[in-house]
Amino acid sequence: MIGGSSGIGCSTHESGPVGNMLLLAGCVAAVLVAPGISIKLAVLLSVMVVARLTGSILFLARKLRFVVLFSLVLFISQALSVHVGRVILFGRVTDQGLVLGAEMALRFLVILSSSMLFVAITDPDELTHALICAGIPYRFGFVLSLAVRFVPFFSQELSRVREAQRLRGISFSFRRPSELRRAIYYTFVPVLVSGLVRVDAVTMSMKGRAFGIHRHRTWSRPLRWTRIDTLFVLLSAALLAASILARRFTWM
Fold first, then answer.
1. Where are the domains of the chain?
2. pLDDT of 62-75, one tens digit each?
3. Do 30 and 240 contact (CB within 8 A), yes or no?
4. 23, 227 in Cβ contact below 8 A?
5. Are 67 and 109 in contact (CB under 8 A)?
6. N or C: which end of the chain has fewer CB within 10 A?
7. What whole-number distance in Å separates Cα of residue 128 and Cα of residue 149?
8. What b/e sequence results for 86-114 when a residue is b if at least 16 CB atoms lie within 10 Å of its CB, and e otherwise?
9. Do residues 32 and 143 lie in contact, with contact meaning Cβ atoms separated by under 8 Å?
10. C-alpha 159, offset from chain centre
């Protein structure tokens, strides 16, 4: 069975999918609209605070390690490639280069961290329900729900396969191009086969339940709206409003 929920950080799902989607949209829009660094830092801090309050901060910390490293690469490359402004470091790094590099790195961090936070605190079933209520045919909504459910499945299956191969004495490194083919054969092929078997089982189960035979689908519980959803909407609206005002009046 595929796990019943991908809400990794917030196990009780205090927030609903609509509030989570609006929070994600507000953070992404705010960081794209906002000029300068200050508001982008505020958006990133807001994402971290929400992650802490929903109990998904450890999940983000694990997932964002590579993202932070890549953001640092973006910052350095941008700082070295921009030659506009006053030179302040190493005879070629300018103040404008540092500012533009920081803006690009923060934009990348906010978009990735807010997206991962959305995945961590959103129940796939409730997300599907919200999309169907918005007018999307329920067959397409369940495709998204199954796709979200298979993401942690493949991650866990890959860990199991690598551990099993290690116990068998089969070792390889993904960092060496010469061993890449061997690594694919011993890890990704078993994971792919396991995934196909699981997909076949899900398909047979859906056929046995006559999924798709009716044009409309009923739900056992209504789409809910909580106080946390209201707080998420207010937070995203405040961040977006601050970004628009900062761009309009050239603040920060």
1. 17-122+224-248, 137-208
2. 888 888 888 898 88
3. yes
4. no
5. yes
6. N
7. 12
8. eeeeeeebbeebbbbbbbbbbbbbbbbbb
9. no
10. 20
